[in-house]
């Protein structure tokens, strides 16, 4: 299966973001992809964290989910819908949710971001817990024979989550890494997760200078189970594609059967 990572530089205009996402998904389909993934917060990079609260949708209802469902059905794609805000039980909070849509347009999986990002270096400060309610359930699904484990952005730093998905063929990491942390850690962590789990990794990212002044690292990429970067887009909107090769998965696992050697 050919897979596609869509990179965006989302802003505060939800309608414009949805149009861009649809255009990138169409590009992925035109290039022959059977699965396409959008970045974290593809639908909104607002001026304030609290902007997500007004945009939050009920599961199964809303324009963001409607766009993803229609695109999946019309383009005959598996779509990993980056993340969108889904209403939480706790007042004043939302879930940062990945919804997966099958080529029928139906929801095939839901994952709520488990690890919430916090960072303060004196110049930049982030604390997702101000508006997000953390998830708790690892989630995997089958995309036409490709077993795929889900994660979001900061989850990448917690390898125990990805161990829960073994064996899997693909790990998805939609993200909006900051420029500061991404420059040092993004590729390093993605390649490590691919190598230690002997699977492909697809990482669609936000990549550029946003209207709210934030700069994200980008470098959306696809990594193979040996840690080789198959495709990467440094910055700006676009799509990168690569093939998942079952023979490559089998070869890596046979020549270095690390997963079979696990003791803990």
From TrEMBL:
Annotated signal sequence range: none
Name by which UniProt lists this protein: Carbon-nitrogen hydrolase family protein
Alphabetically ordered keywords of this record: Hydrolase
CDD domains in UniProt: nit
CN hydrolase domain boundaries: 1-246
MF terms (GO), sorted A to Z: hydrolase activity
Family that this chain belongs to: Belongs to the carbon-nitrogen hydrolase superfamily. NIT1/NIT2 family.
Pfam families on file: CN_hydrolase (PF00795)
């Amino acid at each position: 299966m050919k897979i596609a990572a869509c990179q965006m530089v989302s802003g505060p205009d939800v309608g414009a973001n949805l149009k861009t996402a649809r255009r990138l998904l169409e590009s992925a389909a035109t290039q022959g992809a059977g699965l396409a993934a959008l970045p974290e917060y593809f639908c909104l990079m607002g001026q304030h964290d609290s902007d997500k609260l007004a945009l939050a949708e009920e599961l199964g209802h809303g324009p963001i989910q409607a766009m993803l469902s229609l695109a999946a059905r019309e383009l005959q794609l598996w779509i990993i819908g980056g993340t969108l805000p889904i209403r939480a039980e706790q007042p004043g909070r939302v879930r940062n949710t990945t919804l997966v849509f099958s080529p029928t347009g139906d929801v095939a999986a839901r994952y709520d971001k488990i690890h919430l990002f916090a960072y303060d270096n004196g110049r930049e400060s982030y604390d997702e817990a101000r508006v997000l309610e953390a998830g708790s359930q690892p989630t995997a699904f089958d995309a036409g024979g490709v077993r795929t484990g889900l994660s979001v952005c900061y989850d990448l730093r917690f390898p125990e989550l990805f161990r829960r998905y073994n064996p899997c063929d693909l790990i998805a990491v939609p993200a909006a890494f900051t420029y500061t942390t991404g420059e040092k850690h993004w590729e390093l962590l993605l390649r490590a997760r691919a190598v230690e789990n002997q699977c492909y990794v697809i990482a669609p990212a936000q990549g550029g200078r946003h209207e709210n002044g934030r700069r994200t690292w980008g470098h959306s990429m696809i990594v193979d189970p040996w840690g080789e970067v198959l495709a990467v887009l440094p910055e700006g909107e676009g799509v990168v594609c690569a093939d998942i090769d079952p023979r490559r998965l089998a070869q890596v696992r046979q020549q270095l059967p690390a997963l079979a050697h696990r003791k803990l």
